[in-house]
Amino acid sequence: MSNYLGEMIRRLRTEKGLSQQQFADMLFVDRSTCANWETGRRMPDAAMIVQIANVLSVETAVLMDSTKHQNDIPNVIMLDDEKIILTGGLPVLEKVLPNASITGFTRPSEAIEFAKNNIVSIAFLDIEMGKISGLEVCQKLLSINPRTNVIFLTAYADYSLDAWNTGACGFLVKPISEASVKQQLSRLRYY
Q: Which of 30, 104, 132, 161 is the most buried (most CB within 10 A)?
């Protein structure tokens, strides 16, 4: 995903001779927050963009215009420890979300690493995966990006109550279908 806003913030910050820590202190945020903006892992909200513009002595419109250049192709991931589920599920997601970049994972660690380096819009997560559960992966993904829409996948509807306590926005019983995915997409928290 292109990160024009983050690149612009970094360029303007360095032109002013500010370190990330100095910049963060002026905005009353953590240095890691600024790093996340600059790398594109997170986006500042509109109120923060106004504050950033003031600190960097630029018009707010300059920063807002750079957000228009962000790549609108959302990253969607599917995590299931069973390859056969990915083989059947990924084509369904590709059909329902033709303008998304869809990536499948069988290992939770790979999905988490991907989320650290890319903004994940939607994560379809299996709940039972061996050593680490999808519930735990959900918490990790939401700590990386609280605006990730998580939809749980399972063969057992009994997990649905546990799933709702994680911040997820959906729940699908496997195997998934186009109709069930479309229904869940209509309920996303973040579009």
A: 104
pLDDT of residue 1: 41
Angle subtended at Cα 41 by Cα 56 and Cα 59, rounded to the nearest 5 degrees? 20
Residues of the chain with CATH 3.40.50.2300: 75-185
- Look up residue 1 and give its amino acid: M
Q: In what order do the strands lie in the sheet with 75-79?
A: 101-105, 75-79, 120-126, 149-154, 170-173
Is it the case that residue 70 has pLDDT exceeding 80?
no
Question: Taking all residues of the chain, what is their mean pLDDT, rounded to a whole number?
Answer: 87
52-69 tens-digit pLDDT: 999 999 988 888 776 655
**Beta strand ranges found along 80-139 (DSSP E):** 101-105, 120-126
CB-based contacts of 116, cutoff 8 Å, min separation 6: 41, 144
